[in-house]
Amino acid sequence: MAVVLVLLATIANATALVLQRKAAQDSARARGVSAGTLRDMVQRPAWLVGTAIFAVAVALQATALSIGSIALVQPVLVMELPFTLLLGWLVLGGALRRREWIAVAIMSIGLVVLLVTLQPSGGDALGAGTLVWILGTIVTLGLLGLTSSIAKRSRPVGRAAWYGIAAGIGSGFVAVIVKAMSEALIRDGGVGVLTTWQSYLLIPVAPAAFLTLQHALRAGRLLASQPGLILGNPLLSSIWGIGLLGEEINGGAALLGGLAGAVLMVVGVFLLSRSPLLAAQEGGPRDTSGAARNGTGTRRRPL
């Protein structure tokens, strides 16, 4: 059930991302990249609808985290990328080719291998201890600040890539906090959530993560930001879950299977993130097998 819920959350996340990306494109075309672009973007209907759908995705993910471990739930979020391409085809144009389908298959196989071999389970987010939470929070927020700072000082492609990593870190940490809140809710109801100090981390962290995501959307092309955005979340949250919150995974030979699954997932993500379809959906040049060529065999330049 946890996997089903998080799959629904990935579909909702992909829908929100496509709609917000459309708003960013419309804003950039209307105003150009300027200080007012973000303000203009958030006033557009596509962005508002995308934000509402994003809230639904958060609720689905929170429910999944309440019944499953972080290391089980968060890796499934990598499937957001193929869903983004599929939905982007409907909203932004383009079409999936054999290359994209092969990458989706690689990602899917990798995810299944990872989860079946490691079988993440257990853990106690509230039993980890205050010191573990404080040190983990300091390191995580330090990484978020560092990657955001590097992004601000980088060239366009590097800026998008680093903002993507920062957004992945932020969303992964939000998932960790939500996991603690869900455990408090199960144990003591609403009073437990209000009396659990980790709940109040969400007040500064959630807006920071959301704002970082918006910067990633408008900093450059998704081809640069998508790998960090997609992989940073499950990596950060799984490190928290297994390394700090006591979640258990199979050892021995199962670790090799988990590593193989993780490698397949990373390969699939990078293949999809560099898909010509993703470039086309962002208004970049299309690279299709049926592209027109001139008499010398080279591609015609667009007028």
UniProtKB/TrEMBL annotation:
Domain of life: Bacteria
Nucleotidyltransferase is among the record's keywords: no
Annotated transmembrane regions: 46-73, 101-119, 125-148, 160-178, 198-217, 229-246, 252-272
Region named Disordered: 280-303
Coiled-coil segments: none
Keywords, sorted A to Z: Membrane, Transmembrane, Transmembrane helix
Entry-linked InterPro entries: EmrE-like (IPR037185)
Claim: Transmembrane is one of the keywords in the record: yes
Name this polypeptide is given: DMT family transporter
